[in-house]
UniProtKB/TrEMBL annotation, chain A:
Protein name: Acyl-CoA dehydrogenase
Cofactors, names only: FAD
Domain spans labelled Acyl-CoA oxidase/dehydrogenase middle: 134-226
Lineage: Bacteria, Pseudomonadati, Pseudomonadota, Alphaproteobacteria, Caulobacterales
Superkingdom classification of source: Bacteria
Organism: Candidatus Phycosocius spiralis
One Pfam entry name: Acyl-CoA_dh_1
UniProtKB/TrEMBL annotation, chain B:
Domain called Acyl-CoA dehydrogenase/oxidase C-terminal: residue spans: 234-369
Membrane-traversing stretches: none
All residue ranges annotated as the Acyl-CoA dehydrogenase/oxidase N-terminal domain in the record: 6-117
Identification of the protein by name: Acyl-CoA dehydrogenase
InterPro entries hit by this protein: Acyl-CoA_Oxase/DH_mid-dom, Acyl-CoA_Oxase/DH_mid-dom_sf, AcylCo_DH-like_C, AcylCo_DH/oxidase_C, AcylCoA_DH/ox_N, AcylCoA_DH/ox_N_sf, AcylCoA_DH/oxidase_NM_dom_sf
Amino acid sequence: MHGGPMTDIETFRTETRSWLEAHCPPSMRTPMAESEAVWGGRNAHFPSPDSKFWLEAMASKGWTAPMWPKAYGGGGLDGEQNRVLQEELARIKARPALMSFGIWMFGPVILEFGTEEQKQAYLPDMVHGRSWWCQGYSEPGAGSDLAGLQTKAISDGDHYIVEGQKIWTSYAHYADMMLCLVRTDPRVPKHEGISVLLFDMKTPGIDVRPIKLISGLSPFCETFLNGVRVPKTQMLGPKNKGWDVAKRILQYERTNISASGFGGGAGLDLVEAAKESFGLDNGTLANKDLRSRITKQRMYERAFHLTMRRAQEEAKAGSEVSHYASVLKIAAAKLNQDKTELLVETLGMDGLGWAGDAYRPEALKATRDWLRAKGNSIEGGTSEVNLNIVAKRVLGLHDHQ
Amino acid sequence: MTLSLTEDQALLKDVADGFFADKAPVNAMRAMRDSQSTFEPALWAEIGAMGFAGALIDEAYGGSGMGMRAMGLALEAQARTLGTSPLFQTGLIGAIAFDFFATPDQKAQYLHLIGSGQLRLALAFDEGAHHAPSQIATRAVKTASGWQIEGKKRFVQGGNHADLLLVCARIDEGSAQDLALFLVDPKAKGVAVTPRESVDSRDWADISFTVAEVMDAACLGGGVLDPAKLDLMLDYCRLGICCEMLGLISACFDMTHEYLKTRTQFGQLIGSFQALQHRAAAMLVEIELTKSCVVGAFEALETGKDVGQAVSLAKARTGETLQLVSNETIQLHGGIGMTDAHDSGLYIKRARVLEAQFGSSAFHRDRWAKLEGY
């Protein structure tokens, strides 16, 4: 440290720290259960008055989207300032003020591909948590082969009319807006006839049905689109160039999925659960086989987090890091599946309860998390599709021509 | 503190890669093996002249003072082409041992010789087939003018060519804190060096000490070693081995990657088969995760925070990944990978030795779990 006047970044840290001290309520500095997350939207649900206050405070600074331009409600921070902000948030263990697919995935592409009107129309609402966005990507016939999508948009004056069906739309039953991939030219090769439309989920002709998963939860929906009229001004990027936007969003999605390591937090700690189940023998876990496998899993997890950090540092230094998105997505799926599988095994029959008071709530969560995790290597591009991407784009191994 | 290479380090990496590719290509190692040679004086002199041997030695003692990350890059570059020199034994272990424990007189006497490559050292530490710091039984008993060493060391790397041995022995039996290091002339009375022929064709020896007498001044630092400091010295050694393993990993992977892009079967490049694409991509995922663990260990050494965990993580993960990649190298090459004429065999033989040295993956998983409290 220098003895001279504080540098800009030190000043920023001091100011940030005191602002957070003044504005982050004590109840927002405790571990957060999944049900306490704030997703915003027109019908935003706030589990407590503090959570509403905390979102409004953060949004007023633009710090729900710290690096977006101030002109669109963002925080206007540079990378170093954002790092300081994140460190200061972590220091006081602040809860995320807002969970938002809009901020994680869609805002960045609207910033990159959108018109000025689109930026003004959508970005400030994302920052303030006034809109919940969902992703109209997969279709019954277009999963891994996403570019084979059939939902079509037919030109009708200054509107498109959208016809088709989407599936696996995360939280479509709560969403206010959809970013939707549509086919605007069926006569050209499949990647070259796709466009992106942005529309309100209240538009007539949209029918949403939640899908019940093996975990008993319904985070995904089927979305039926029948004669949905969308103004042409709500196309993102040029007509028939939507695949470029789609791929960019997938990168954000994979990075975002990976960043959370598929969540799974706030549950039972694997090592603590194992100690409880099997006890210690001379200071080491009595079940040696499990001890070894738990260690491998935890080492993998540690390696994953170090790689996340390395990717961020290299990106900051200006290196090309796009290949990390698929690498990290593959690794994140494996680590979460291994972790949830090991936790259920560690709990034994206690880890296989479905409902009721006979099981601890944390154990029931372990069961549901384990089942939910089976989707981790499917959603956001299957692990196999991501291996294809690594093989082709990173290693330059191409299919037979 | 950082996980990515600085500009200076990236530059140094290029220099080191170029140097070893030029001066110590795989063919040179193969020729050494075929002529049963385990030491090339000319290469070692150049490694000294490049400043690699003295990377961990202060300029005040004639070293280059480039630091541990530089040493790591040099070891990685050397290992990539299976370059064979005493860089690890002397430049890393020797320099760290003197830096950590030696008296000012001992430093003044030896460090400039180590940094310039004029003195080759070997650490005589383990006594069994597995790395086991707690199992050392060799004893040093105080005499009127020095010490008398009694015991048998096995698997001493560089033991046949060393000018000076660093022998770890107990000096106060019964207490946990009784290990010391002694400087012993391998030609001295009571010291017997027996060469071993190992799978990696390198310099390995068993060394026995029977009433081997040394002077007081031969005890590094003059007495018992701080156990935490000794453990830290071992962690430097382990991290050095990790860097060598990274070198092997990248060489094996590059060789295999190249083969997938050039070998034709069924009228097409074998790299166009999805089964093989996925095996290659899966390796890359493991390699990226592993690289992060190694730079994470460097970072831990620099900050001094949770060094044991960070190094054990790196050693365990690097060992696992090297095992995967060296095995896949043979499988993806097919029959040619099983022939002695192909380099894959040279790499897998060296790989398993490095995996075992200074603690196998199993050793480091166990250590990591203990440090994490289970």
